């Protein structure tokens, strides 16, 4: 993965640590073959979790798909020719040397993919079948979700991977949806679901001389989560934002933290590459023999930088703090960070549904960012601080509201659309869109039985955070673009 992104450096030592862990924790069996199978299964998922935690969202899917393909190649469940067909399609073919297209509605690239697909045994007759059954293929091709529809002719009997090859040839925009089915069947459903970052587990996994480094992206600053974790673990956490002239203060902070046993957080380390090399040398010397408090922890945040010391990256526990993909994952992440006291705060019947509505809005505004300029004209750094500020305002507003007049929707919509979330929005059309979400959702109708954000997405009311987390497990892991107020073709981007 370091070819994809320079920062994705992993050492053999880190892999061997995962291997030893798998040997110790995997299920035992007196039968050698079963014992090996248990170790392999545990190790595979352990490596998946460890690597996925340190990848940007856009690369996590690529990693797990390649993992599934490589394992199935080794198992001989798929052939090398099928693997190459999936990777390359018909890109190497020349249209002039291929059989002529039967109709103009089939694009040149699609036809090249089909011709290349015909070289595989299961698809050897597909060219003639497309020519003789053109209407049937077009009907299937025009479906919004062809991977969910009945496949033409006898192709519905194919296994998930061979259906993926067919989807790859005909509908490249639907590859991700079908490949998630393939990953779930080949590796297990837990590999196809978004990984949620667990700061507490990461902390317990770390040691004093194992720095933890976050790769930054828009709206993914982990500082509030690190400070909350330090408070729960009863440690001090002091931070410094790196930049010109900050090395002196950082050195002093590091010495104090190592001696006293508190946490040091160095932010924006890409701005101080020379000092990163200094930290590497310091830690290597301490490993050989040095005095330090075992409670000491070093947290780093950085953007991508090709001059970041490789050895330091290989020694770190790497993570990203991006919002996970999908409504289910987004809501789960929000409610995991919520304590029970927040749900118990108010006796008002309006309170819990509105907390859920704010959480849903929070997920939507973050998810739209992943559609590029179709989602927002300008990418904004919406983060958990916006959600928390909105929830705290709701608490204060309900406390101060006149019991006879009730909740002021105008005030709530203004604070959400113009202050807490809207305060980040600078584009006029983006501001209009955000306020439209607020006007449509935050009204008296939100408490009606027939209210839904989009069909299938209703207000969920529970009294316990654990009940919400259990409910989210039953939600669909993938969402159509219409949930976010986008056209179905938005996925093509």
UniProtKB/TrEMBL annotation:
This protein's UniProt keywords: Repeat
Q: Which Gene3D superfamilies match?
A: 1.10.8.1220, P-loop containing nucleotide triphosphate hydrolases, Region D6 of dynein motor
Query: Which InterPro entries does this UniProt record tie to the protein?
Result: AAA_lid_11, AAA_lid_11_sf, DHC, Dynein_heavy_D6_P-loop, P-loop_NTPase
Which residues belong to any copy of the Dynein heavy chain region D6 P-loop domain? 209-320
Membrane recorded as keyword: no
One Pfam family from the record = Dynein_heavy
Q: Domain named Dynein heavy chain AAA lid: which ranges? A: 353-490
Q: Give the source's domain of life in one word.
A: Eukaryota
User: Any coiled-coil ranges, and where?
Assistant: none
UniProt record similarity statement: Belongs to the dynein heavy chain family.
The protein's matches in PANTHER family, at most eight in alphabetical order, are given as: AAA+ ATPASE DOMAIN-CONTAINING PROTEIN, MALE FERTILITY FACTOR KL5
Q: What is this protein called?
A: Uncharacterized protein
